[in-house]
# Entry
Amino acid sequence: MKLGDQSRVAVVGGGPAGALAAYFLMEIAARVGLRLQVDLYEPRDFSRFGPAGCNMCAGVVSESLVQTLAAEGINLPPLVVQRGIDSYVLHTSDQPPVTIATPVDELRIATVYRGGGPRAPIGEQKWISFDGYLLEMAQERGVRILPKRVAELSFGADGRPRVGTGKEEPEHYDLLIGAIGVNSGALKLFEGLGIDFRPPPVTRGFVSEIHLGVEMVQKYLGNSMHIFLLDIPKLKFAAVIPKVEYATVCLLGDDIDKELAERFMNDPATRSCFPPDLDWRIGEKKVLCGMTGQACQCGPRLNVGPAIHPFGDRVVLVGDAAVSRLYKDGIGAAYITAKASVVTALFFGVSANDFRRRYMPVVNGIDRDNRIGTVIFWLTVLYQKFLFLRRGMVHMVRREAGMDGPRRDMSRVLWDTFTGSATYRQILMRALHPRFMARLTLSTLLSPFKRFRSG
# Structure
């Protein structure tokens, strides 16, 4: 089973994984002299604001991924990148916040709106959708964007996949790529194809866009991503991310519910990042900093493990539908899986055996790294629960403030944990280094005396 001249490929889903898969299909096929017809099915319009164009994502992109995309010919314009993040502010329940500047200048991160973004109460929007921009790049390469919802997936008598929208006769293709994510009902269509596919395990997170206005965002958040280590059960990661006029609240953990989200938002450490007159409730209209607006909120499902058998003859699933990086850098995982699937299809074949031998090692590699990530996030929960550990960590970060890059061990570990700048394995190896362990032990022993002298 090989793709040849004039082969037809269907991509279901227009998020980063789908758009990048379509883009790479056209780009790489042109280099090897193949002419393909690529149809991408995506019913949402990412230029529309609010729920109609929403892609339920906090929208953080590492600088390394921005550079990687540029090397692929995808240069993100200023209106796509909402704000460059050059530091973290670490908040705990019992100590003043501490700033962690980027250990290396190249490790900055950027914030984006995956979909059209929330509707600003006043004025025109000052941004462009990240997903929409990737779709435009794919379209410029010759991909046909079909604004239709897929209603039927099946195999024809010739063994080729068929895609139907419920209004016309199903189209036949030589390859079907599923880039639908774990929040799409189309997962059931792929389950019904008979390729033994089982969706990945998921948990529920929480994302909210709170309108503050440009001046308030700069005043309270600046160019920093605010990270919270709070002793709240089930909460593994919490962040407040600045974006032009909005602050994005992102909570990850074990099935985040309304009560947990409200507890986080009412914590004194969280309130310090917002104007004192901010009145915030889940699903209610409130007066936000003197302007009438509504906090855009959702509880997206989040991939926390690999799918079972995300491939078959002439079928492959990419992005969140196959595997994603645990609690971070989902866009980076979308890029990796999209390109790996396309390289397999174009250079080796589109049979189940081809994807098993060439594509699955990439998926399994991300999964192995995520298992290490599970250990790392378990350790962060310990630091959230035990005061003496938390004090030692913060004390170590404060001591590193005036040091140069190579000596900022804890700052580098925390930075990489909360971004996609390093694999979890690299983070763990750095944390197990004897120098790191010695400094952390010393800081933990000294932190009570430091607190006593300063208080």
Remarks:
- Residues 285-293, 451-455 have pLDDT under 50 and may be disordered.
- The chain is about 35% helix and 20% strand.
- The radius of gyration is 23 Å.
